[in-house]
């Protein structure tokens, strides 16, 4: 009985704190717009001033000059983002989120505690992969009341990516294949055409070809875990290796790996995985420059 009473008191204290935090934010920013989310219309600040992103969209907000006060731990350690003074938080740390006094929270449909987050600030969620990578940025633009800025960037980026893609195909040949892999813990992963790591640029915009075995394994689900021994089956003429230096890289010392044609021909392009995880404008611009340099200037 005592345990029930204590739990109830804690919940009431949390609700009280949430309501106080919400009142402060509402007073600071009273102008709103109606955003058509995938779950229906939501009233959000017309010019949000304290944004928390609990998903993979921190770079989208940064690219649109949104003011972030909290991001998920994966985004926080991305060396491409300028997140000095921005807290790393998760959806389970409600007290910390309340302390940050957000006026807008962005997450995924799978984010935990969604109903509680909605009590703190307007909360918008997206289903990962439901929208194309550029459509997703446009939606973030709409949410932040910066649709035109987002649309301008999208049009410019697509032109640049396709132009670079034409030059790459001219150099490596129309039939050359490219494989994107990443090591994590003791596993190796291969990616389809819509799971970040530069795949959207390579396959969707540049129209580079994916090896048949990669299509079979990863195109539909987005990615697939493979054993190191299977790597020769999925290896294309070129390999993009999104590399976690702290994870297992011992496979690179094996004869199996060394005998892969892409390895023998010096066509494995390694990059820090932390810079390649996402597909927001900041990451995409970095990926495009990386591909331009590696394919055209090597």
From TrEMBL:
Subcellular location: Cell envelope
UniProt domain Fe/B12 periplasmic-binding: residue ranges: 50-298
BP GO terms, sorted: iron coordination entity transport
GO cellular component: outer membrane-bounded periplasmic space
Signal peptide: 1-23
Residues passing through the membrane, by range: none
UniProt KW keywords: Signal, Transport
Protein family (similarity comment): Belongs to the bacterial solute-binding protein 8 family.
This protein's name: ABC-type Fe3+-hydroxamate transport system, periplasmic component
């Amino acid at each position: 009985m005592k345990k029930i009473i204590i739990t109830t008191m804690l919940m009431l204290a949390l609700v009280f704190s949430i309501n106080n935090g919400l009142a402060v934010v509402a007073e600071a920013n009273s102008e709103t717009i109606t955003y058509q989310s995938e779950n229906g219309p939501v009233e959000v600040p017309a010019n949000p001033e304290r944004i928390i992103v609990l998903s993979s969209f921190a770079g989208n907000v940064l690219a649109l000059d949104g003011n972030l006060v909290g991001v998920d731990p994966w985004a926080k350690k991305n060396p491409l983002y300028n997140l000095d003074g921005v807290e790393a938080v998760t959806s389970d740390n409600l007290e910390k989120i309340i302390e940050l006094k957000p006026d807008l929270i962005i997450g995924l449909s799978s984010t935990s505690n969604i109903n509680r987050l909605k009590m703190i600030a307007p909360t918008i969620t997206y289903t990962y992969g439901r929208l194309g990578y550029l459509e997703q940025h446009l939606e973030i633009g709409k949410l932040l009341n910066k649709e035109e800025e987002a649309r301008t960037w999208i049009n410019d980026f697509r032109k640049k990516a396709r132009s670079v893609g034409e030059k790459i195909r001219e150099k490596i040949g129309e039939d050359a294949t490219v494989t994107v892999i990443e090591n994590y813990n003791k596993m190796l992963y291969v990616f389809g055409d819509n799971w970040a790591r530069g795949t959207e640029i390579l396959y969707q915009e540049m129209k580079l070809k994916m090896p048949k075995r990669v299509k079979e394994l990863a195109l539909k689900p987005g990615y697939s875990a493979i054993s190191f021994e299977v790597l020769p089956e999925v290896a294309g003429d070129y390999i993009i290796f999104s590399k976690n230096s702290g994870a297992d890289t011992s496979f690179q010392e094996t004869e199996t790996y060394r005998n892969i044609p892409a390895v023998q021909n010096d066509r494995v392009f390694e990059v820090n995985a932390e810079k390649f995880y996402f597909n927001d404008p900041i990451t995409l611009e970095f990926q495009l420059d990386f591909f331009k340099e590696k394919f055209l200037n090597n």
